[in-house]
């Protein structure tokens, strides 16, 4: 089964089972960082640790990745100077990034710089997250609750029509209209300048990557302040508490664009999908359960079969490994905003796991079957023992 997009391996990070390259340094008066080639990152993060920000430091990796990874540093490195931590984590990350990959990332940055140096936005207000102008009142109210009540407040605006799938009202109609107009303006500029456009993924032939023309900071804020909190509540088992990078894009469906989308999984830990409009018929999403790589082609269980009809402004959020597809758009034009949210820490830890009972439906079914067989075997053993004692 194809993955819906190309994996961005530069966001992968190491786990506790792998050594990190130590560096020399002295900061905050605590002495040099230990020189130990077998130094390891922690398996479990320090959730009570407040990480530094790394936005102003130059690196080939996203700043949010360093903030997320910092919680996994060994205890004696948590309070050293920010620059030293940055160098330490950068060396760790470079172990998982080949020179070819780093060159590809650099070329993509140059591609974005060329766009940003020439493209004139239609609505500059879209490029800075403004909850009051973006979100419906119920969504804002849920996140404005006091710390102790916020999780429950967020749960109250969610519907769970099928296991692991959550829907809610999110975006204002005016915001949806402006974002659609901005994408159309960008595509017009692409056509007029004959600039090469990079499509959202390997399956969609139409649409645009929002990060490429300047919306990356806004989308990162959306993930960090809102999607990550939702994911911490509902998708902690796939790294929802440690989302540290994103891929944001718009897809377009109509009779003269993409019509449908085949059965697939997303290159994400958590996917946010919001319908922007316009007028359309068809285009329903169909879901068939969450699966690990081993069980990707396993049959769906009856309770995993679910179809979802899009409503403009309404969002659906699910695990990226939740198998799904999009039925044909039979009339009009459907445009959706998608935000693939990723956790480099979860991706690395997943390499060292043997089973995924917490989220793979087939792993869960196999476990239930093993328990049932064990219980049945134990009962038969007890019955035989009772029969022998009676005789």
From TrEMBL:
It comes from the Eukaryota. Its cofactor is L-ascorbate. Signal peptide: none annotated. SMART domains: P4Hc. Keywords: Dioxygenase, Iron, Metal-binding, Oxidoreductase. Residues 13-27 have a biased composition (Polar residues). InterPro entries: Oxoglu/Fe-dep_dioxygenase_dom (IPR005123), Pro_4_hyd_alph (IPR006620). Residues 1-12 have a biased composition (Basic and acidic residues). The keyword Metal-binding applies. Residues 244-343 form the Fe2OG dioxygenase domain. The keyword Lipid metabolism does not apply. Pfam families: OGFOD2-like. One of its GO terms (molecular function) is L-ascorbic acid binding. Residues 1-31 are annotated as: Disordered. This is Fe2OG dioxygenase domain-containing protein. It comes from Tagetes erecta (African marigold).
């Amino acid at each position: 089964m194809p993955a819906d997009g190309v994996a961005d391996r530069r966001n992968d990070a190491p786990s506790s089972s792998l050594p990190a390259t130590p560096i020399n340094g002295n900061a905050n008066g605590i002495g040099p960082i230990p020189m130990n080639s077998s130094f390891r990152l922690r398996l479990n993060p320090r959730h009570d640790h407040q990480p530094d920000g790394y936005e102003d430091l130059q690196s080939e990796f996203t700043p949010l990745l360093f903030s997320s990874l910092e919680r996994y540093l060994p205890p004696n490195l948590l309070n050293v100077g920010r620059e030293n931590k940055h160098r330490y984590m950068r060396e760790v990350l470079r172990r998982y990034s080949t020179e070819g990959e780093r060159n590809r990332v650099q070329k993509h940055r140059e591609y974005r710089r060329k766009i940003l140096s020439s493209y004139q936005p239609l609505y500059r207000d879209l490029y800075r997250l403004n909850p009051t102008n973006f979100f419906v009142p119920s969504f804002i109210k849920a996140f404005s609750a006091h710390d102790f009540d916020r999780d429950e407040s967020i749960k109250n605006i969610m519907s769970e029509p099928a296991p692991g799938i959550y829907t809610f009202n999110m975006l204002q109609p005016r915001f949806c209209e402006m974002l659609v107009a901005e994408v159309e303006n960008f595509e017009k500029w692409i056509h007029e300048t004959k600039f090469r456009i990079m499509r959202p993924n390997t399956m969609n032939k139409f649409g645009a990557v929002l990060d490429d023309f300047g919306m990356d900071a806004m989308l990162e804020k959306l993930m960090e302040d809102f999607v990550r909190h939702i994911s911490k509540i509902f998708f902690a088992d796939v790294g929802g508490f440690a989302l540290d990078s994103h891929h944001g894009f718009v897809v377009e469906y109509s009779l003269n664009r993409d019509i449908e989308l085949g059965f697939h999984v997303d290159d994400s830990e958590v996917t946010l999908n919001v319908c922007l409009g316009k007028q359309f018929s068809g285009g329903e999403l169909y879901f068939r359960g969450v699966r690990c790589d081993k069980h990707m082609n396993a049959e769906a269980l009856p309770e995993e079969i679910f179809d979802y009809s899009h409503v403009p402004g309404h969002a659906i959020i699910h695990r990226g490994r939740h198998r799904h597809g999009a039925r044909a758009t039979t009339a009009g034009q459907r445009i959706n905003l998608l935000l693939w949210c990723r956790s480099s820490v979860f991706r690395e830890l997943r390499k060292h796991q043997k089973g995924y009972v917490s989220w793979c439906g087939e792993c869960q079914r196999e476990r239930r079957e093993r328990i049932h067989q064990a219980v049945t075997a134990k009962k038969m053993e007890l019955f035989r023992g009772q029969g022998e004692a009676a005789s």
